[in-house]
Design a protein that fits this description.
The complex is a heterotrimer. By secondary structure, chain B is an all-alpha fold. Chain B contains 21 helices and one strand. Chain B has one domain: MetI-like (MetI-like fold, Orthogonal Bundle). In chain B, about 75% of the residues lie in helices and about 0% in strands. The chains are: A alpha/beta, B mainly alpha, C alpha/beta.
């Protein structure tokens, strides 16, 4: 009864809005909050599309997998590189139709299905007022005293945690197990998600937290706090990217295409740094918002292709689990 | 030969019980529809199962052992602010996990108050990370529940018994043996089983305070299977194992609970004549002080952080608070509709094993139930607008075992005491509910409703899986703030959440006891 | 009017047989040694203990399987005769309608009954705020409004003092007379029997004897009864 009632209400609501076409965009949960990029994107796109952009938030991949062909999404924004393989396997996505050469990523991007809209790198963040000798390299991090404490995320439950084990894999390969054994006594604990780790860091419980190279930007530009720094390692940092994809079965193909084009527009790219606290995927450094070009970024960027990451992931996680379970 | 007498409050509880089981089983049918053959269980999963059982058993044992002196002290002392203290002591139970963890770390963490204090006086510091940290955190969460259940039991001992004990001038040891020990035998197994089941489903707390992957629990493995590998078969299998462990624990506990009524007194105000002075009074004071410090200091840390964050909180948080309130009220209604008839049904049975049914919702991983229902609803209707009602239903299912534990013993008692009188008056069905059960159990119903509401406010629930931006709840909003670096504003939201959950609890609990003589 | 036909009541290892009729309007005392089954007998008549054999008839109607509340019987137990959370007016009102949906006329009946048993003005009190005697009176007020042809008393006044108990028995006697009810009461005290009983049912050795006139029985008791009376 209740369900029928709700369904009827919805039907009426959707009929009422039938004059303006609706573009349904699935987004990650953080995306649409008023401090996320969602509202600005909605405003910017609606100004040029004569349409109604509606976000629907949730856990992207599980939701797509559960909905399958019945998905209401026209566009999906926020798929991270660790889930694109599975997302691709659903065969729900169409080619993005944009020119990858417009991208300004530090790596070569050839994927024609998932279009990057922002990026960053894994990094350990520290507070320079409490840590006077931050490690200058990954090797130095391993050699630190054991009373310097880190908090990391679990690679089994968190994308940044997964990026860390791939980072270690990319830098140390065969010797990863020993690396984890050296890190183990310094790792105070492991958290389920990034938020809990970062909360422990801002509360002063740990000296360093696994986060992103762009994390200090939030403190600099939103809080005018210049004490939080990312430790930059010459061995390289693992590349993290968020992408947008177009659903093949969309009933609004033109709008979806227009949105994909909008993602690469200067308007969109300009708002990414301050709204998403990450780097824009298609904007030359000299056009970044003021101060962003001064953000210390790694010279060397490490990245596994989708297939490579998929092939190495399970073994890398198992190595991590064993070393930290001692 | 006369037919077996019908219970005076009817058997609609059977229907409620069937509904609960069906709600959970159907979700597994839904999961089954989409499950493909995955990789099954590996050594990592078996290690997780072992660790889960060990930490849950230790946590349950310790929570109850600590709760006994605390509840005893609270039961026999009257002091100003006692009611407020008892309400506040319930707070850890309803805190969102991440808030509680940060609160605990502020006190017991590496740079927390305790270690700062120890360092200042030159003592070695203590590390909270490890199995002992997991147990400590779980005791923090569950001691309030165990204490409340025991306290309720203590208060159900009729005043007349204490009067008799006072008249006979029984020494404390004898009071314990004659009055308190029989009570403990009845309340402790159930409370311990509940705590055990709650700890079975622990995940983020165990991982963070356990210090790493050696503290992997079944729930983490479920999350990993679902979220990262999308292996629904493995996730369902793990979820069923969890369900089996919980069900087994519940059956054992309910089976050992002796079944005898704590016969009714005449609703005289409870006064205690024992333990009026000397070392016992001091002992109680120390127990109450230590218990309060353990439970309240982390809350104080949350309060301090929250007060700084309140002004930074964006306005949208208030809107999500409204959503959460709505979900909470809906959860309370759903809960009462299910729990009351079920409690009635269980109370009329000789053995309480049927109460184990109440545990299926709590132990079957809300993530799995939500996902199962998502799969079932999706072909028929859009699940997104149903996100809040489904959340309310799942919250009610999760609160059901607590509600039953609160309601069944006194309901059994009421039915045993007034069965003949009610029958001789033809008081049955709705009239028996209206004039006998509801008024006699008002305090317990208020307690159960308050607990459900508070749990519902604090629970992230399945809403994280699929929600419209407009349908976010307060905990979800808090996580969003944290995810967007707004740690301070998130602390403010956490404080708001805590205040809301506590007020809801307090209102229901107080409402239940309003104008009641007992 | 109340017939027990070949009744056998089994409880645990205990068996009680009864086969007799209680005459309308008579006041019958049920006596016998402790544990002989007096309460069991009343419980069976009241519908709380199932019969293993036999039938129970009231005015020719078979009430063996009728639920307690639907029998033409009002009963008072040894304890728990009042709901402590309800006022005594509500407690008495339950005797008229178990759902307590009372009209003005019915409420007037309750008030009248309360004042008849001497509890005028105490309607709103709860049992906990009354003395033992007053609690008994409140329970009797309910019996009064129940207006059933049979009243069973399972020693409801056992806890009261002798004078108070006599008052209560007198009140019961008056009420029974007023409502023309048939009264069965368990008692231990021969004085109670002499005071109000017309007949006596002697329960002993697994058998409840047929009612005998009280006067004659007490003056010339059979050996078993003599042993009990001492």
């Amino acid at each position: 009864m209740r369900r029928t009632l709700l369904a009827t209400t919805l039907l009426l609501a959707s009929q009422a809005g039938a004059e303006t076409p609706v573009l349904t965009v699935y987004a990650g949960d953080y995306f649409t909050s008023e401090w996320g990029p969602g509202p600005k994107i909605e405003e910017g796109f609606e100004a040029i599309c004569a349409c109604d952009l509606q976000f629907s938030t949730g856990d992207l991949l599980p939701r797509l997998l559960l909905e399958g062909e019945r998905t209401k999404a026209d566009v999906v924004i926020g798929l991270t590189s660790d889930v694109t393989a599975r997302a691709r396997a659903t065969e729900l996505f169409a080619p993005h139709g944009q020119d990858n050469s417009a991208l300004t990523l530090p790596i070569d991007w050839t994927d024609d299905t998932f279009l990057p809209f922002n990026y960053g790198h894994t990094a350990f963040i520290y507070n320079e007022t409490t840590m006077d000798a931050p490690p200058a390299s990954f090797d130095a991090l391993l050699e630190m005293e054991d009373d310097v404490k880190l908090v990391i995320q679990d690679p089994r439950t968190s994308i940044s945690g997964l990026a860390l084990v791939l980072w270690v894999e990319a830098v140390y390969g065969e010797t990863s197990a020993e690396v984890w054994e050296k890190l183990a006594p310094k790792i105070l604990t492991v958290t389920k998600d990034w938020s809990a780790s970062y909360g422990m860091f801002t509360d002063g419980e740990v000296d360093m937290v696994l986060s992103y190279t762009t994390s200090p930007a939030y403190h600099m530009f939103a809080e005018e706090d210049f004490t939080k720094k990312a430790a930059i390692f010459p061995e390289g940092h693992y590349f993290m990217v968020e992408t947008v994809g177009k659903i093949a079965g969309t009933d609004q193909p033109e709008l979806a295409d227009a949105f994909m084009a909008y993602v690469l527009s200067e308007d969109f790219q300009q708002m990414i740094p301050m709204a998403n606290w990450s780097l824009p995927s298609a904007l030359p450094e000299d056009q970044w918002p003021e101060g962003w070009a001064q953000l210390p970024l790694p010279e060397k960027v490490l990245f596994y292709s989708e297939d490579e990451a998929e092939a190495r992931k399970d073994q890398a996680i198992e190595t991590w689990r064993r070393a930290l379970s001692q | 030969m006369a037919p077996r007498a019908q219970p005076i409050i009817g058997t609609s509880g059977v229907a409620a019980g069937v509904f609960v089981v069906a709600a959970v089983l159907l979700s597994f049918v839904g999961l089954g529809l989409r499950a493909e053959v995955g990789r099954g269980l590996g050594p990592a999963e078996w290690a997780a199962i072992r660790f889960t059982v060990v930490q849950a058993a230790l946590s349950a044992l310790l929570s109850v052992v600590v709760a006994i002196p605390l509840a005893r002290a609270l039961a026999r002392r009257r002091f100003p602010g006692r009611g407020v203290l008892i309400t506040l002591l319930g707070a850890p139970f309803i805190l969102p996990v991440i808030v509680a963890v940060l609160g605990l770390l502020a006190v017991f963490g590496r740079t927390g108050w305790l270690n700062t204090g120890l360092g200042a006086v030159g003592l070695p510091t203590l590390s909270i990370y490890g199995l002992h940290g997991v147990v400590l955190a779980h005791v923090f969460f569950n001691l309030p529940l165990a204490t409340r259940l025991l306290l309720q039991g203590w208060q159900s001992i009729p005043a007349e018994r204490f009067r008799l004990a006072a008249q006979l001038n029984l020494p404390p040891r004898m009071i314990f043996r004659t009055l308190e020990w029989p009570l403990l035998k009845q309340v402790v197994p159930g409370a311990a089983a509940l705590v055990f089941v709650i700890c079975l489903t622990s995940f983020a707390v165990a991982l963070t305070l356990g210090g790493g992957p050696r503290a992997t629990t079944i729930e983490l493995a479920i999350y990993q299977a679902f979220r990262f590998d999308f292996d629904l078969a493995r996730a369902s299998l793990l979820s069923l194992i969890q369900l089996g462990l919980a069900g087994g624990a519940a059956l054992v506990a309910l089976w050992v609970i002796p079944n005898f009524p704590l016969s009714a007194g005449l609703d005289r105000g409870l006064r205690r004549w024992d333990a009026r002075g000397g070392w016992q009074a001091w002992g109680d004071a120390v127990v109450i002080a230590l218990g309060s410090a353990f439970l309240l200091l982390p809350l104080f840390a949350i309060l301090l952080a929250g007060l700084q964050g309140l002004p930074l909180m964006p306005a949208v948080v208030w809107k999500t608070a409204g959503n959460s309130l709505w979900v909470a009220l809906l959860s309370i209604c759903v809960l009462l509709v299910i729990a009351l008839p079920m409690a009635g049904w269980i109370s009329t049975r000789r053995r309480g094993s049927a109460e184990a049914i109440g545990l299926v919702g709590l132990s079957a991983s809300p993530l799995m139930i939500g996902t199962g229902w998502f799969i079932l609803i999706n072909p028929i209707a859009d699940p997104v607008p149903l996100a809040l009602p489904v959340t309310a239903l799942i919250n009610a299912l999760m609160a059901l075992p607590f509600a039953l534990r609160i309601l069944v013993p006194p309901m059994r008692d009421v039915l045993a005491t007034y069965d003949r009188l009610s029958r001789s008056l033809g008081l049955q069905g709705w009239a028996a509910w209206r004039w006998l059960v509801l008024p006699r159990l008002r305090a317990q119903i208020g307690f159960a409703a308050g607990l459900t509401g508070a749990l519902s406010v604090g629970d992230l629930g399945v809403i994280a899986l699929f929600a419209d931006p407009d349908r976010a709840t307060l905990p979800l909003q808090m996580y969003r703030l944290m995810g967007a670096y707004r740690t301070e504003a998130a602390a403010g939201a956490a404080l708001l959440l805590l205040a809301m959950a506590l007020s809801l609890f307090w209102l229901c609990d107080k409402g239940g006891r309003w104008h009641a003589e007992a | 009017m109340l017939r027990l036909e070949g009744v056998e009541i089994a409880q645990g290892g205990f068996l009680l047989r009864a086969d007799f009729e209680v005459v309308r309007g008579r006041r019958t005392a049920v006596i016998g040694p402790s544990g002989a089954g007096k309460s069991t007998l009343l419980g069976a008549i009241g519908g709380f203990t199932p019969l293993r054999e036999g039938r129970l008839l009231c005015d020719g109607r078979d009430i063996t399987d009728v639920a307690p509340g639907h029998r033409p019987i009002a009963m008072l137990f040894q304890d728990n005769n009042l709901f402590p959370h309800l006022s005594i007016a509500q407690n008495a009102g339950l005797g008229i309608r178990p759902d307590l949906k009372l009209g003005a006329e019915e409420r007037a009946r309750v008030a009248q009954a309360l004042s008849r048993v001497g509890l005028e003005g105490l309607d709103a009190r709860k049992p906990g705020a009354l003395s033992g005697g007053q609690q008994s009176r409140a329970a009797l007020a309910r019996v009064l409004v129940q207006d059933r042809p049979v009243i069973l008393l399972d020693e409801p006044f056992a806890a009261l003092g002798p004078a108070l108990r006599q008052d209560m028995l007198d009140l019961v006697q008056e009420l029974a007379t007023e409502t023309e009810a048939t009264l069965l009461m368990v008692t231990h005290d021969p004085a109670d029997v002499r005071r109000i009983a017309d007949d006596v049912i002697f329960v002993e050795g697994g058998r409840a004897a047929a009612p005998q006139p009280a006067q004659a029985l007490l003056e010339n008791p059979p050996p078993a009864l003599r042993a009990y009376l001492g």
